[in-house]
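Subject: Glycerate kinase structure
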Amino acid sequence: MFDPKSFLASIFSAAVAAANPDRMIRDYLPPRPKGRTLVIGAGKGSAQMASAFERAWAAPMEGLVVTRYGFGAQCERTEIIEAAHPVPDAAGLKASKRILEKVSGLTADDLVVALISGGGSALLPSPAPGLTLADEIAVNEALLDSGAPIMAMNTVRKHLSTIKGGRLALAAHPAKVVSLIICDIPGDNPALVASGPTVPDPADRADALNFIATYGIRVSAKVMAHLNSAAADAPSPSDPRFAGNEVHVIASAAVSLEAAAAEARKQGVEAVILSDAIEGEARDVGRVHAAIAREVALRDRPFPKPVLILSGGETTVTLRAKGKGGRNSELLLSFAIGIDGLSSISALAADTDGIDGSEDNAGAFANGSTVARMRRAGLDARAMLAGNNAWTAFDAVGDLFVPGPTGTNVNDFRAILVGGRPA
């Protein structure tokens, strides 16, 4: 018997497998240098990337990468440090200092391989002179609460750091830096992944100040003073010290969505991809996806059913209350309200790193009966959405999706099945 949950979970697995570091890193190995090979990295997939690099690199090397607590991997030549995400902590600060120390004093004969994935911004706290870890934590919390898009958040972060915005690559100069990046940014801009520790981008501090004003981001007077000073200026992409470096996006949402679509077709369900770069308030994006699914279910347009509708990107959540949730579960709760009563629709929304928010779920499942089942459990779905309490709502009906850490991160993944598998 066809089970929509199992089908959707298998599609998620195909998307994640397409971003597996073991499959990608071998295709981007740099030539062996005359001097030392130093591996550094940060992100929720950095430990698995380091493990994959060790297996592929048949030459001497040493390394140090930082990842989220619980996301470590077995490595023999690379030290793994675990730190806090999404809010930085002292372990991340220590890791940043040690990484900067490791890349200092290198020569033009040396090679630095930077393994970067999503989550690296929080895992690499390194406050600018005059600022403290507490200042960086406060800014990070304000950014997460603001609902600002990831581009805006990372533009602010890089102007308050001694490691982001290309500064780590400059610290390694004159060594060649080869960045291997698993991209979790809509549009696949490598300079925005983990706030670009090894990849500069053109956004300047005027842009950072504009984002703070536009999104009402609450920062201290000390932080504002820094942003209004030349000390905050980030390196320019035109700086000649970046000239010999290489940047490779080895996995992205676009590739993973294509793999998911191929798996659906293999299982007999036609698939369409809306976009790999959808941004916006999670509950608003959920409503739009619900409207599309309803149109397909009721009118066979813009796609005939049965069909699997796929999308990716990174939504945001403006916190209105202190419930338990995450952007994928919040999006899906909004979606569930929008498809209430339509039995032909089932969906999964999940973060490809395996964690949505601060709990242990990647996201959740929903179908046309979700809102009614929540009601029978004593919960009002609209009230739970208003309270940013989607995790609690889906937990009450047993629909959380908990695959565990995946070792990669190509951002949010949404799969909506309208109709079942063809006979």
